[in-house]
Amino acid sequence: MPAAKSPDPARRSERSRRAILAAARELVSEVGYAKVSIEAIAARAGVGKQTIYRWWPSRGAVIFDSFLALSEGAEGMALPDTGDLAADLKLVMRATAAEFADPAFEAPIRALNAEIINDPELARQYHEKLAAPVDEAKRERLRSAQRAGQLPPDIDLDLFLEFLYGPFYQRWLTRGGPLTPEYADSLVDLTLRAFRA
Amino acid sequence: MPAAKSPDPARRSERSRRAILAAARELVSEVGYAKVSIEAIAARAGVGKQTIYRWWPSRGAVIFDSFLALSEGAEGMALPDTGDLAADLKLVMRATAAEFADPAFEAPIRALNAEIINDPELARQYHEKLAAPVDEAKRERLRSAQRAGQLPPDIDLDLFLEFLYGPFYQRWLTRGGPLTPEYADSLVDLTLRAFRA
Amino acid sequence: MPAAKSPDPARRSERSRRAILAAARELVSEVGYAKVSIEAIAARAGVGKQTIYRWWPSRGAVIFDSFLALSEGAEGMALPDTGDLAADLKLVMRATAAEFADPAFEAPIRALNAEIINDPELARQYHEKLAAPVDEAKRERLRSAQRAGQLPPDIDLDLFLEFLYGPFYQRWLTRGGPLTPEYADSLVDLTLRAFRA
Amino acid sequence: MPAAKSPDPARRSERSRRAILAAARELVSEVGYAKVSIEAIAARAGVGKQTIYRWWPSRGAVIFDSFLALSEGAEGMALPDTGDLAADLKLVMRATAAEFADPAFEAPIRALNAEIINDPELARQYHEKLAAPVDEAKRERLRSAQRAGQLPPDIDLDLFLEFLYGPFYQRWLTRGGPLTPEYADSLVDLTLRAFRA
DNA sequence: ATATAACCGAGACGGTACGTCCAGTCTTTGA
DNA sequence: TCAAAGACTGGACGTACCGTCTCGGTTATAT
User: Which end is more exposed in chain C, N or C (fewer Cβ atoms within 10 Å of the end residue's Cβ)?
Assistant: First the structure.
């Protein structure tokens, strides 16, 4: 009893799908997110525009999918677990800070975030496909810390992560200040203090 | 010996400036931020397109200015100060949460944030013109708490605010969850615990 | 030893053929000749596009066939023969003029003529399938007049018909003037005078 | 008190107008009328598509105008006048027949006629701009014949011309037969007989 | 009686062109 | 002497169809 409103995915050309996502990825890195047009993607992919419009609802969705395709297979990720929660988290946060300071990495991520802000469906997909696996890995590290007695067993792990990343995210997005290693350390220390028994 | 490259502001028509900003504001609320075009603003304001291009560098800048014009005069704001910091902050956070849940308010703010993300100059103006006065009011309340011995005297007030608002901001922007009053309270409690001596 | 390049007509689905021609006819009268697309015909007929492309070489051919199907069975037509050639021809010409003034009739015939102009094959078919039987009926009336001594026995009947209908056709196609009953009469009188002994 | 709905022609770019008409003419002769697209004209002319849409209502109108531009200045034409009407007309008709048999000339004229058939406005312009001057020259020759006593003074000259050209036009458009010199002569002889006293 | 070939509905595909919108620049004109 | 009005080139939009191409699912002979 399928709704069957959208076209039959069985007939979809895998070759075209791949070409489109590859073209989208290339174009984003070549001319920047804002200047990538459906027309350019279609031309680069050797595909009719209709083939894009048939399977994606918007430019944002295509490009988002091209990001997704990149991170596929990154499933079984895990955070370092040396037994020292604070040290491990600082390592991760410092790495993240470094990553976000790299201009080549920064531009598309900013664009992606701008898109997500205005498009609830994209936001949903972002959480489901991109954020969920990463968040689960983080929660797993926190659970390990709980088992080790380094964190109270009854805290809300998602809230913990929001405290850890929220300030970071805000500062980065609004360019409210530099993402220094010391800043990364502060976030970890303060968050731990907030949640420690 | 000024560089004097940009047009002489003295010659600027105040009537046109006002009409443009008013038109921009109206159009944003009528058709949504993303669909407002320079052309439409010019037509609505009864102004030549050139007059817009002469004074603003981008569509984002015009619309941002039209937001600014709204909040002018909101200078001398102050947060409630009953002597109970936690209660006062919770009041403010709950009000903010309610405000951000109002769709009429939400849409343009989301659009503004999306624009800020990708445009450093806009971000700079945002901090300087919009965020600064509000942040100063918040800091003033915290200083009052420090004087009352409710907060250690040596903490970084900006970091405190980042902890208070960062999680909130992230959750709202990415639609990571509902902004309930309880959530608002949690943010206050946890932030206070992180910074309390 | 037939060439047998084209598909075997024996396997052709009569049901589809009829549905296509019916759909074409309906669409022409609904949206006008120029706006009828193969895709629309196929959809309306509940038929795959390929089925149309298999049996007809062009859009014009399909629609032309749908016209043909209408006039099938109009074989044994005959012109009135009261013995008075001029009167009979005037009757016919006036009727034709009235017919061509009817907008419902006019539009598709104009479109058909436009198509014929640019497509020699369609022109051939037009003469063979549509014009021939009608012309033969007209010639028969003229032969009857020859037998009655109202027309010289050696005149070129086709040329006679060209004189009778040529001015009419030109005036109608190029909208060079109104097709009044008096005009119809003039054509008959002048043509008769040109060919009378 | 002008209606002033359409754009002010005073602001029209003469350079663009010329480039568009030239491009249209070139493309018609290069790829044939049917395959000339607005897009191609714009590209060839180095002009935005909007500039074409601003000043012409349809593709047909542009191309028609490009024909018009060709025949501008062909105002003061005159038919031969040796004193022998029949001979002069035969000369003209034979020349016309030869002209219409030339494929290079034929194709665009066919296309033009097809367009005129379906577009009343184009038909109106055709009569006013293209046919009128030529017809006037023909009528002038006939009036000369009337003064010379070779034609009755009270005949309808337009009707005369319809008889002369109608059969010709019909035969050519529908490919009803060859346009031989003998055929041309017959048209002249029969028309003269029809209208002679 | 069954394979096997063609036809069939369906519709995805690479493309071309449509007619519209808007960006950002350039030109004319009226106050 | 401005600035409004708006025409200009150019690029992209999202849509409509083109004609070709599979895809399974019937027929309908031709073994």
Answer: N
